[in-house]
Amino acid sequence: MDRNNDVIMSSQLYSILVTTVIGIGILSMPRALAENVGPDSLIVLVLGSVLFLIIALLIQRLVTKFPNKTIIEMSANVLFKPMGTIIGFGYFLHLLISTVLVVRAFGEITKNFLLLNTPIEVIIISFLITVVYSVRSGIESIARLAVIILPMSIFPALFVMLVAIPDLDFTYFLPILKTPLPKIIKTVPQIFFSFIGFEIILQLGFFVKDRKNIKKAAIKSILFISSVYFVFTAITIARFGIAETKILTWPVVTLFKSVDVPGTLLENVEAVIMATWLLSIFMSVAVSYYVATFLLSRILKSKEHNYLALFILPLVYILSLIPKNIVEVYEFLDKFANIVSITMIFIIPIFLLFISFLKRKSKKGMKRNG
Amino acid sequence: MNYYEKLFNTQEDTQNKINMAKGLEENLKRLKEMLSNCDDIIYREFNVGKDQKLKFATVYAEGLADKIIVNEYVLKNLMILARITEPEVNSIREKVYGLIKDGVLSVSDLKEIDDLNEVVNNVLSGETVLLFDKWDKAIVIASKGWPMRGISEPETDTVIRGSREGFTETLRVNTALVRRRIRDSKFKIKQMRIGRRSKTDVAVLFIDGIVNQDILKTVVYRLKSIEIDGILESGYIEQLIEDNWRSPFPQVQSTERPEKVAAALYEGKVAIIVDNTPFALILPTTFNALIQATEDYNERVLITSIIRFLRYTAMLISVILPALYVAMLAFHPGMIPTELALYIAGNRDGVPFPAVIEALIMEGALELLREAGIRLPGPIGATIGIIGGLVLGQAAVDAGIVSSLMIIVVAITAISSYSNPNYSFAISFRMLRFTYIMAAGFLGLYGLMLAILITLIHLCNLKSFGIPYLSPFIYYTSLKDFKDTFIRVPLHKMKGRPQFIAKEDKDRLMNKFSRDNLKRGEDNNG
């Protein structure tokens, strides 16, 4: 089958995208929504998802337009040579920082819900070593892992959500559309933050074998992700109400905690769900880590990303321990999401697409004239 | 030379050729030199013809060659019958050797060779070699016939419903057992010799037109590159050609059952049968293939689907149950229902060790018992099981060294691990269990998840002869390949061969067959 160690199928790309995007973001998302737009959370969520779908289609257009090119060559091609390295480095930093933040947030969650007495350093370092092991085994292995992990991580959580259904009160979502419009517009980037990770398609498109299906994979993954987000947010807010959701750090985790699965052997399933959710967070980190090392190896023009993965490990570890507490992590995440991610996901790809479009047009025009 | 002959052709056969001399004395002298101090080689010189002018000699290895064939059909024909018929001397003078070959020896399998090295090889593999005076060729008479074990029921892959035949130690018998299940001219058996000294016969079995050529090429290439003095068991070959020796998981399936080999060949896989061992190798192997038991296809579909599901669950239990128990006791006691938690606490009262140590002790003791049970002869082995399991376990609980709940956990684990149909697969899980327990002891549920993740990453990385080990779970491309995984769909729904292996001739069951047709036939009859 795929003997070459650098080829993935578009169906595997779909799994990678879903497992990468779904991760840490959703755990706090209902809080952010409830804080900002209250009862209109779901409407804003749908709005944000639709907007993001449009962005995703644009990004995807860029990927299919430049076959067998990473973002470095794309931007070098569209703009000029040093720009490729600069933009590539920008993406590297962006991925590195988002990896660091996710790792830290993950460490905090694990410490809070699974291992109360274990130092966070132990949790982070053991997690990172596993990530590096996965990164070193290559993209094909990561792709296969994503396909297996997707059902393993999402379905237990969804199952627990189902159990919570009898206690739901959907009147919390009333009245509809009472939030002022500027607030809604301000909240949409918050939703974009939850889609961070999607920009890896810019790099992973490079590996896909059946390129014509990339579009389908992109659309399918966005639809799946947003429906998972929708279900999670709807059930969390309907269970706790707006006022309570606002004050919970990770409302979704609290939801897992509050659910009593009837007739099971275990009393508190939240530890099990958190353990399976760990798989999803692992994928987010592993993929962005992989893409970061891949970009770095491209910038440095070295063929082996294996050693680079080890080289970055201490950096990620030290950076992840810098924030003093989880509040700082989330403050930084918000700023980061607002400025950097929007640039990386939204502005740069569309700018590149626009320029390449203009270039092609002018070329055509020149041909016609000449 | 056709494709397969080229593929299997080895250069060295023709390299160290020693041409035979014309004189019988000379040839015998050289043979005796080459086989000096081999007292099991029998040389018999005799004269043929009415006037006893033609000098012949037979050479064979005692114990390997069937003496009856040599005596009755070679020596008797040449020495006595040839004299009685008194052929016209003049008419046969020129073609005496041809005549002997075609008209005298009443043996079905003959071949002519002119290489002294080949003579030695043939003698040592049990054939009888007939040497002539004044001729530089020898005739090899197939006379392999050593005492061998009869075909009996395999010990490892036992079934309730299914064939009772198992492979034996003789290659020819084994290939015949498979041939009986695939009477197709496309079913090929290519033989090669591996081992500088042992010169073990190794047969590569495949069905032309179904087999995945990439896999076959890899297999033959790897087999050819083996340079070793002796192959004693197929395990040698397995370890020399497998992809990753560090992996705890077997990447080659070994079986004693001919129908399992036949089924694998029908799926487009390749089988290797090695002389002197009843264990054939099937490759490539996937994770899923190792969970399938022979019987799954012989019994009716509903029950086998349930059993298949049960087996997957048992596999999961056999790996993670003790680790899960340790993690819950040590790190997440809140997960256990209150009443049970109180009971466990009471039960563990006075146990001096933490749960991890307790689990490791008990699992270690269990492995010890298992090993002792295998090494001891049959009836005593069973006794060890009873003494170890019942007496020791009960005594340990009474003494307060381990809690009785831990005994239950360990026992469930052991039973689950026995339900795995493949022995080498089951032992790899036994190995993993210990690392999982330790991971759970250090970092609780989180550690267990990390250990599972590392195993998963490793499994995703693993390939068996170019086929990803976790096929078909790692693709979404088609649901067809999932028909024989967690459940087994009815045979009439399994129309194709596994897509990740078979590249040509993908249909097993022709589209003509459908259940409706069966019913229609019924109507016609009625």
TrEMBL record, chain A:
Q: Where in the cell is it found?
A: Membrane
Question: What's an example GO cellular component term for this entry?
Answer: membrane
InterPro entries per the record?
Spore_GerAB
One Pfam family recorded for the sequence: Spore_permease
Keyword RNA-binding attached? no
Q: Name one GO biological process term.
A: spore germination
The region annotated as signal peptide is none
Q: Which Gene3D superfamilies match?
A: Amino acid/polyamine transporter I
Q: Which family does it belong to?
A: Belongs to the amino acid-polyamine-organocation (APC) superfamily. Spore germination protein (SGP) (TC 2.A.3.9) family.
Name this polypeptide is given: Spore germination protein
TrEMBL record, chain B:
Coiled-coil regions in this chain? 14-41
Q: Which GO terms describe its cellular component?
A: membrane
What parts of the sequence cross the membrane?
Answer: 309-331, 376-395, 401-419, 431-459
Q: Which domain of life is it from?
A: Bacteria
Keywords associated with the record: Coiled coil, Membrane, Transmembrane, Transmembrane helix
Which PANTHER family would you find in this protein's record?
LEUCINE ZIPPER PROTEIN 4 (PTHR22550:SF5), SPORE GERMINATION PROTEIN (PTHR22550)
The family assignment reads: Belongs to the GerABKA family.
**What name does the UniProt record give this protein?**
Spore germination protein
This chain's source organism reads Paramaledivibacter caminithermalis (strain DSM 15212 / CIP 107654 / DViRD3) (Clostridium caminithermale)
